Amino acid sequence: MLSRLKSRCNLMTAQACFLLQICAFAWGRSVTSRRDSGNAAGISAQVGNSRQAVQDTPKGFKPRTLFGWGRNNAGQLGLGHTADVNSPEILNTFHGKEIKLVASGGGNEVTSTGGFSLAVAANGALYAFGANDRGQLGVGDLEDRHALVPVGIRTKSPIAKVAAGADFSIAVTQDGRVYSWGANDHGQLGLGDTRDRSLPELISGSLAKHSVHQVSCGAEHVTVVTTNGHIFAWGSNGKGQLGLGSSAPKQLNPVQIQGAVTGIRFTAVESGHHHVLAASKSGEVYCWGANDFGQLGLGDLEPRNAPHALLHKFTRSKIVRVAAGARHSLAVTESGELFSWGSNDCGQLGSEIKGGNKYIGYPHRVESMKVGRIRAGAAVSAAFLESGRAFMWGCNNNGELSLNDVERRTNPHAIPTPGGVAYTQLAPGASHVLAVNRNGDLFGWGRNDRGQLGLAYTTLSEMRPQLIASISSADVEAVATGGFAYEYQAHSLAVTSSGKVFTWGWNAFGQLGLGLLAAGSATPARLFDLEKPVSLHIIECGQYNTGAVVSKKQKSGLKMWGPNFDGQLGYRFNELGPVVSPNDVESLIDTNIVELSLGYQHVLALDAEGTLYVWGGNRYGQLGTGDSRERNRPTVVRAFRGDRVVHVAAGQHCSFAVTEKGEVYAWGYNENFELGLGLGVSRNSPQLVGTLSGKNVTRIVAGGYHALAVTGLGEMYAWGNNVYGQLGLGHFDEVQVPTRVSGMPQLAQPMNPPPSDALLRGNGHEWLFPPAKSVGKIHTGVSGAGTWHSAAIGSDGRLYVWGRNSAGQLGIPQVQLGSSISTPTVVDALGDTHVVGVAVGAAHTLAIGRVGRDWAS
């Protein structure tokens, strides 16, 4: 929410102190190559205190979700792909999720493949992240993903089970159908061939006649149990792991295992890398496959290519659960006794072995453990006590035990649970672990070199539980976006209420701030330079550049990054750049910047005292310094008749300022009448926009070649280029002076109740905000501009758009691509989403909203 500080607007009525969230686009008829290859001004966002955001959250909390649509050629929508979108889609990274199922895939020292992960939400939606060199994420390409991306399985039935192998994936729907994707050189996809798949495909054949209720993946093979208790297997059979009684190297289609188990009904099957354990309904355990470390528990090291019973190796209790690691095995009896056998090179059996042996060839009871559920990773073991406490032991080279070290444990150790909320699921993999707690929050730890922890970044490993997804963790507080009008590339940033900062999109000039140059990123990545211990207050995206107002240890400052062709980074010496990570504007260190706006290659910054600083390109006089000379250091502009400036906005090559008295000043490029002065002549010093005098303007949104103004009464005025109807006036004619947009309903009103640092006076119709003594008093707000379309939020919480629809940027599928609309029109595709913020880029739109109206009732 955008709150006015006393120093910027004094006492204001509730009508005057409204919440404005509006964006605009413009285009010029007579366009030079430079203008045609440039975006309008960027979009900025003021970021509030995350603790305050939580306190202000109403009952029946619904997290603020981020939507995107329109041009996406540089991944600026953050959807994980680069295809244009003509209707609002949720950015998955910022969509709260309640997770119910997880699976960890990937190889180890044997298979040497990267880690990846699968997660199923409570609504049955499937997500994937991590390594993807064989298409194992199921997203249609071979690019790794460092954050959760949806897997598009074409089925009406929700996903009920998932399993992951070394580099392939399996999913089972609620109606028992099986889908597979990823590597297939051993026929592990069960599709009758050895061709890899990067998208899920339904397994047909003999398995289609059965309903599958449980699935398990080995390194390169699959076993499933049907609802009638039969076991089917397919894939690699080099170690006899398919249990078919033959030495055939592979099986390309699912085949039912028979022989010694004919007529036996099974309840569960678990696959290690190359061996299998199966639990029958009567409490028996059968095993087959590799046995080089005694993992079959038969007392020898001979492999078996057909099922063998293990019942006589245990106590008289029935076995109710089994688990298989890479080369070790676990089993639990109905009385809670835990048995282990096989490889113990890392202590994964839960006890030391006398005599130096690295394995136990028969079931061995793990003393002092009475457990319920069990899981096994490649070389780790996990167990849940009946009380719900979770324990792990075994290898810890990558911090798999979440104990903040790399020391292996040969005895079970309780693992930490963030917030004291117990885990309900653990999914140990080859080198990373996923966990779900009783709230449906997803955590991960261990190796993260391929993004398998889904944290939107890569590291060698994480040794403590890291939150990956939850219902509320992705609550979006602010978003900003910029753009490039020639091919409409753009970049974006978003901040969550938990203080996480994400960046994505175009990065040819280092504008993402990630320390490198690249074509772009279609998936949001974490920008740690703007996170704790730094406090972020404002983010702003321009044409190619990005800026942020931050504070640290009571000191505030401005950071800029990207190219520096015209000195727009504000550095002491002209350097072309690009600068690929946030860098201080030295002359503004300790200056309390309360507003920031970036144009094509110029910058406006306003401090708490009302002083306006400008720097960067000045070819058209957009700096307001009375000349056309560029500045590479912040320069003060004083030309407002003694009236204090409270708001600034940068267009593509023009600038605006709003004073404390509500007057509007404009300067810079004006060939399309974007200054609203009635004459198409550029100005190099601030000029009073007389038509808006007395209108009590509170905010200006500057497009490329048009502008919008909003008054304290929630009215909107528009002027400038209108070739695509971007002024919303119902026609396509150029407008020389500000004209009221009559087709737009009243704009969004202020928060009710007001923020806690506002002093409520009288009957609640006046808010008094304390002076801006520190940057930390700035609250959430979103505003900005782009190229050829406009957007605004009405007081009803609905989003209205108008202008050009060349790439679907209006978000209205019924409007034909390439056409335009000249009156504000509701984005019906957002349904009952209550929109609270909007940011518009060159040819795309981002919107923040709470899904569902009941939060506001």
Automatic annotation (TrEMBL):
Keywords: Repeat, Signal
UniProt RCC repeat ranges: 64-115, 124-175, 176-228, 229-282, 283-335, 336-387, 388-439, 440-492, 499-552, 556-609, 610-661, 662-713, 714-772, 797-851
A Pfam family annotated for this UniProt entry: WD40_RLD
Signal peptide, first to last residue: 1-28
The keyword rRNA processing is annotated on this UniProt entry: no
GO cellular component: cytoplasm
SUPFAM superfamilies assigned to the protein according to its UniProt record, in alphabetical order: RCC1/BLIP-II
Domain RCC1-like positions: 208-515
InterPro entries: RCC1-like_dom, RCC1/BLIP-II, Reg_chr_condens, Ub-ligase/GTPase-reg
Descriptive protein name: Regulator of chromosome condensation
